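Entry 14. Ran structure prediction on the chain below.
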Amino acid sequence: MKSQIIYKNFFIFSEKSNTSFFTTFSRGINIIHGKNTSGKSTIIQAIHYAFGINDEKHKLAEILSEKVIFRLDFLIKKEFVENITIVRDDDFIYIKREKQPLEKFSGISGNSSKEHIKLKHYLAELCGFNLQLETSGEYKLASLEAMFLPYYVAQDYGWVLALKSFRGLDFFRNFKYDYYDYYLGITNEYDRLEKQNLEKEKKDFENQIKFLTNIEKQNDELNLSKLKDESFISKSIEYIDSYKKNKEELIQTEKKYIVKCNEVTFYEERLKILNKVKISLKKENPIKDDCPTCKQSLPSLLENIYEYSQDVNNTNAEIEKIKTKFKDLQSTINSLEEKISIQKEKVTKDYSILDKYKIEDLTFGTWLDNKTKVKLSENILTQIGETTINLNKKIIELKKFKTDDEIKKERNSRDFQFKKYFIDFLNELNVKKFDDDKYTLLYWMGIFPKQGVELLKTMLAYYFAFNRVIEDTEYIHRLPFLLDAIFKEDIDEDNRKLILKFIYKNKPKNEQIIFSFAESNKNPKTAEEYNIELMKNEAKLILTDLKNERSVLKPLTIDQNEYLEETLKLIE
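Output, structure tokens:
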């Protein structure tokens, strides 16, 4: 829902010098006038600073050295009208809404601080602001400066370049397009980073399909392979069945062969041990020999002699048994070796026959190579199918977003709406028309080839045209239109009147406008005279000082003292 903010009162208090500034604003035209360097720009910059816009801090260095507190009372109109007070005391901001507890934000001097980010989201929700800008590869809520930018013309760069009234906004990638798209109602609340990722994935899938399809179409061997493939399928099945049977028999024979070889090895080792035992027994004859170690006579009892003879007989018998076993094993091994040889020859012969099998110059050997190509072709088709499914998913997901062509069409439509207002306003301000559309269409617009008063009037036409065209955007918040130093250049009297007439005639409907210009005794007419002559005395005049410089702060009056006490009580 569209929201509108209207400023009511603005108050500055210096604790250091016990001085202050206070003004009320009318709901229509407000003119801040006074001597050069008397504080006109300070008032406008301080209003932004009160909202937490730290970009204005370097311009307020002098008044901030006075230890000042800023208070702004304003109305916000949405479903209903609500009174709100915002107070900034250096690094602290306090916000009081009707029938709601006081909100406090501490440590807001840095834009990247946690509290400043909280403040940004709070004010954005209050105003219904949701511009998302890209930084570090992701979209985040835009800065407060972007929320105030359409309604502010800074004294310095604001009258020279579009989108330059605040610093640092160029830091955001594609700021110009995202900014205009949001305020013109072309793109709004959606995750643009999600759309970018989906479009990238869609592009990748399309490239994959194109690549795979080219391989499939351009490789004649793959197409030929598919045609040849079926010719050998029946023969290969026949071979595989036979091969499996013969190979299995060969494997079983080889297993038996290995087992028998292991048995031979086992009995060889056992025979070695028995021969060693036999030799040892001969050396230890208890009747004839002594112990080979200690040289003592071996026991010659009958039991010992019997035991010894039994060992000799057992060893000899076991040796003979093993020798017989060797003969049987060797015979079996020889038989298995012959069988293995026959089976291997059979397997080889079967494959050789198949390998020589030929259909229309296609042999089995070349068919196996061919089969690899067929498999590659099948894999390619599978990948194309899977990739196409993924591509279709991304296309469906992207349907919730506007297409590039739709966005381009809407941009063109809104661009030409702006161009119509812009040209009309240039004509009203007697500015020579541009011959090239790059100076009249927002998305093409660069630096205007103008200087001096002509450039100032061109920029004035640009700001008013942009404000006029975004009035049609349903969700856009509205803030008071602040123009600082509308007579920035050395402007003659005719152009002064022309500019003031233009502002009065084309000011945003039912909205607040606040602008400033310098006034001195050298000027042909005073702000009061301009107000009566050109604005039907409708403007609220806010005087800084006509005599002294840097004098926006004055001694505290009784009324202001009461206002101060209320402010201090609010933030206790």
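The CA atoms of residues 267 and 371 lie 51 Å apart. Will compare against last week's run tomorrow.
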